[in-house]
């Protein structure tokens, strides 16, 4: 069988997508033909600049309001028809050139659903005999995320019947736009499909020995096109699942049992990819890299040995990492981690509140995180901290605890230990997470039509309007202290789109938005005369700024693009604040 494997928008540009590269290697090892085409980087190439790419990506994430039905592009996109049609023409030309038996569409998240359905519509129209298979985590998620209701209406117009199922992949099969849906892991399932052409296949990770999966094949990617951080980076996977059961995460549902490769096996794969592609930096796509402490110590030990012996040709790696309690950290741990090339470790801090993190089941305290960040600073290990506000139990004091943590880490932004932070999207409620399963028990009310319609019985002040207010206050704090933010503009835009496109349902669930109190910017913390930050918090931020003037200068030095980013983020802040004030 011959496969053409597509990765589709919306994806980050920091490294080539790994899933199609893995599936290709699996197909080749089983004697089939396969090639990969990254249609996400194609959007970037057609956009010609990063700003336009962000705008196009935003259009891929929402249904659109168009009622025009001259063609599918006009039906799904309100604007940018020429560039979307050009994108589709290049894809269909690729299909025509390759002449595959199967078109495989790799769907990373609900943000890729619109692209996947548009490609399927056009491919089935132009190549009626072509078979299409969809897979990936996004194929197993609920269709179209927060815009499900709008897409449901639009698909009803196309197919004259209700077609949205519980999962996106099944929806495409229901509509006849896909011939097969691989649910779960695809390494073995894709070979079963190639051999038997089954309609639906469930990939069972429990039956897969991860060390038998061949090394990813990146031969079809133009590795020069991606927006790497500092240097070219390839992605590899060392484990599946997670050792945590965080209440807001669906990873335990997708992978009930944590499975991992040996540390030496992962290190050897890195060295193989380095030799094949001349790349020295790797992104670990695992849910967490240090789930097994034994495997992680073996991994860091093997790479530390290699880097010590090859000081002019070292390996570097980044990945998602969990903070563990202080008493679980063995002697010499941080020194070995540094020598192994570990950098840019992404840690889900989530909140500065111990009580919120306890409810989340994060299993580490503020003291544990403070201690680890101090050790990172001492050993020159760089990290990225992820936060999000408005977890359902979050009180105003919990929110202030997060503000306090952001301010307390000023020295670590200044010495570049904390390279970036994300302020995140306020909590959104998703099916099949532990919090979803306990919602009746804890008194969380939810409307399934969109993921922002939820409210706790004993925390009723945390409406969607209040969540936006808190997110904007975090933005004002960041302006005042010049915090090094990542993905911030996209987050602000997404909140604005949600507020605009779902306002009717938001008002039905929460009632009309009350007057949002604004205050003078008493200490000139921002560029604005009026802010949402209450006076008592303004005082704390002012004191933090005045005691960290030198650190703020260093943040600007280490993050040369901070001012540009903040400039763009100000636009998102103003637009979201205006949208909140106008409803």
Write down the overall geometry. globular
What's the mean pLDDT score?
A: 91
Beta-strand residue percentage: 5-15%
According to DSSP, the number of beta strands is 18
Q: How do you describe this structure in short?
A:
With 583 residues, this protein is an alpha/beta fold. The protein folds into two domains: 2-211, 3-Layer(aba) Sandwich (Rossmann fold); 228-582, pyruvate-formate lyase- activating enzyme (Alpha-Beta Horseshoe), CATH 3.80.30.20. β10, α12 and β11 form a beta-alpha-beta unit.
Explain what this protein looks like in three dimensions.
With about 575 residues, this protein is an alpha/beta fold. The chain folds into two domains: about 1-210, Rossmann fold (3-Layer(aba) Sandwich), CATH 3.40.50; about 230-580, Alpha-Beta Horseshoe (pyruvate-formate lyase- activating enzyme). About 45% of the residues lie in helices and about 15% in strands. It has 25 helices and 18 strands. A six-stranded parallel beta sheet has the order 2-1-3-4-5-6, sandwiched between helices. A six-stranded parallel beta sheet has the order 7-10-11-12-13-14. Strands 8-9 form a two-stranded antiparallel ribbon. Helix 1 (about 20-30) links the parallel strand 1 and strand 2. Helix 5 (about 80-100) crosses helix 6 (about 115-125), helix 20 packs antiparallel against helix 25 (about 560-580) and helix 21 (about 490-500) packs parallel to helix 25. The longest helix is centred in the C-terminal third of the chain and has 21 residues, at about 560-580. The protein is globular, with a radius of gyration of 24 Å. The model has no long low-confidence stretch (mean pLDDT about 90).
């Amino acid at each position: 069988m011959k496969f053409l494997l597509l990765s589709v928008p919306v994806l980050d540009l920091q490294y080539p997508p790994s899933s199609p590269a893995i599936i290709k290697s699996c197909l080749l090892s089983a004697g089939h033909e396969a090639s990969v085409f990254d249609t996400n980087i194609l959007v970037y190439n057609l956009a010609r600049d990063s700003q336009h790419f962000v705008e196009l990506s935003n259009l891929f994430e929402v249904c659109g309001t168009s009622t025009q039905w001259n063609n599918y592009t006009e039906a799904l996109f309100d604007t940018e028809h020429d560039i979307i049609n050009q994108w589709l023409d290049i894809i269909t030309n690729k299909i025509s050139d390759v002449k595959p038996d199967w078109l495989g569409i790799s769907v990373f998240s609900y943000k890729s659903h619109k692209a996947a359905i548009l490609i399927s519509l056009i491919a089935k129209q132009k190549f009626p005999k072509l078979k299409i298979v969809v897979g990936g985590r996004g194929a197993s998620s609920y269709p179209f995320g927060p815009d499900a209701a709008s897409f449901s209406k639009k698909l009803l117009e196309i197919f004259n019947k209700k077609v949205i199922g519980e999962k996106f992949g099944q929806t495409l099969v229901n509509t006849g736009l896909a011939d097969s849906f691989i649910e779960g892991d695809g390494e073995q399932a894709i070979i079963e499909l190639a051999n038997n052409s089954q309609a639906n296949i469930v990939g069972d990770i429990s039956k897969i020995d991860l060390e038998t999966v061949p090394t990813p094949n990146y031969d079809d990617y133009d590795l020069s096109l991606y927006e790497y951080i500092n240097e070219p980076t390839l992605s590899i996977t060392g484990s599946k699942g997670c050792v945590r059961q965080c209440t807001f995460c669906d990873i335990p549902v997708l992978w009930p049992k944590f499975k991992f490769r040996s540390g030496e096996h992962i290190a050897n794969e890195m060295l193989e990819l380095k030799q094949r592609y001349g790349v020295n930096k790797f992104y670990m796509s695992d849910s967490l890299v240090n789930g097994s402490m034994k495997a992680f110590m073996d991994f860091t030990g093997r790479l530390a040995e290699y880097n010590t012996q090859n000081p002019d040709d070292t390996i570097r790696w980044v990945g998602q990492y969990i903070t563990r309690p202080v008493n679980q950290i063995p002697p010499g741990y941080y020194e070995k981690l540094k020598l192994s090339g570990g950098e840019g470790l992404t840690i889900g801090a989530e909140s500065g509140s111990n009580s919120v993190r306890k409810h989340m089941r994060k299993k580490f305290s503020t003291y544990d995180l403070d201690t680890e960040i101090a050790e990172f600073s001492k050993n020159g290990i760089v990290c990225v901290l992820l936060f999000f506000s408005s977890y359902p139990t979050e009180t105003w004091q919990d929110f202030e605890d997060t503000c306090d943590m952001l301010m307390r880490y000023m020295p670590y932004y200044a010495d570049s230990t904390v390279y970036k932070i994300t302020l995140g999207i306020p909590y959104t409620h998703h099916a099949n997470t532990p919090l979803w399963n306990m919602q009746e028990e804890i008194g969380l009310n939810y409307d399934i039509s969109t993921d922002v319609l939820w409210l706790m019985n004993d925390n009723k002040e945390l409406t969607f309007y209040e969540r936006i207010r808190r997110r904007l206050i975090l933005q004002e704090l960041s302006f005042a202290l010049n915090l090094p933010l990542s993905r911030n503009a996209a987050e602000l835009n997404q909140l604005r789109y949600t507020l605009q496109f779902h306002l009717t349902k938001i008002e039905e669930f929460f009632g009309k938005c009350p007057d949002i109190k604004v205050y003078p910017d008493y200490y000139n913390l921002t560029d604005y005369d009026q802010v949402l930050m209450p006076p008592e918090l303004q005082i704390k931020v002012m004191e933090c700024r005045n005691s960290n003037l030198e650190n703020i200068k260093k943040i600007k030095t280490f993050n040369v693009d901070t001012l540009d980013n903040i400039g763009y983020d100000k636009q998102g802040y103003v637009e979201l604040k205006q949208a909140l004030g106008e409803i």
